[in-house]
Design goal:
β3 and β4 form a beta hairpin. The radius of gyration is 30 Å and the shape is rod-shaped. Helices cover 39% and strands 16% of the residues. It contains 3 helices and 4 strands. The protein is an alpha+beta fold and 76 residues long. The structure holds zinc ion. Zinc ion binds next to loops.
Length: 76
């Protein structure tokens, strides 16, 4: 019977030590990346119609920005 008790004590000790070793992780404070908008979310205005669209959704053509492929093709 005492063997079982020792076994349980050892199990508990291992559990306790592991709990001490694994410290609770605190969420990191919001970094600078959380505040500044990502490059893909920059709003640019279409050269043709002037509508503002996210840079990732528009079309870059010849240094100019267009809201869609059609306006980029239509050009000036
Ligand atoms: Zn446009």
């Amino acid at each position: 019977m005492s063997k079982l008790l020792v076994f349980l004590l050892v199990l508990f000790a291992i559990y306790w030590v592991r709990r001490l070793l694994t410290k609770p992780k605190t969420p990191p404070p919001a970094g600078p990346t959380a505040r500044e908008p990502q490059a893909s979310m920059r709003m640019l205005s279409c050269r043709r119609c002037g509508v503002h669209v996210p840079e990732s959704e528009g079309v870059q053509r010849g240094g100019d920005f267009y809201c869609c492929e059609e306006h980029a093709r239509g050009g000036h």
